[in-house]
Amino acid sequence: MTHEQIACGSTGELIVDDGDVAVVAHGHLARVLTVRWLGLDASASRLLGHPHPGTLSFLATEERQPVISAWNVP
């Protein structure tokens, strides 16, 4: 999936319909992916701090709602 597809909300083809997914991404792409996961416009990515290199962030669902369960964890 390209940055443009994520930014415009295009989900592309669903590859995994259940289970966990790991994504390795550059900081800006990670922020855009995160806000799109939350259902926000890609421009909201500026509200998140820049992830530091080599850190982990976790997106999840709680009560069927998308959440950030961890952000920028060393």
Describe this structure in words.
Helix content is 23%, strand content 22%. The protein is an alpha+beta fold and 74 residues long. It has one domain (3-73). It has a two-stranded antiparallel ribbon with strand order 1-2. It is globular and about 30 Å long. The termini are far apart. The mean pLDDT is 83.
Query: What is the assembly state of the chains in this entry?
Result: single chain
Q: How much helical structure, as a percent, in the residues?
A: 10-25%
List how many beta strands DSSP finds: 2
Q: Please report which band the strand proportion falls in: under 5%, 5-15%, 15-25%, 25-35%, 35-45% or over 45%.
A: 15-25%
Uncertain spans:
none
SS element count, helices: 2
Key features of this structure:
2 strands; 22% strand; 2 helices; globular; two-stranded antiparallel sheet; single chain; 23% helix; alpha+beta; 74 residues
In short:
The protein has 74 residues and is an alpha+beta fold.
Which helices and strands occur, and which strands form pairs?
Layout: H1 3-8, H2 27-37, E1 56-62, E2 65-73
Antiparallel strand pairs: 1-2
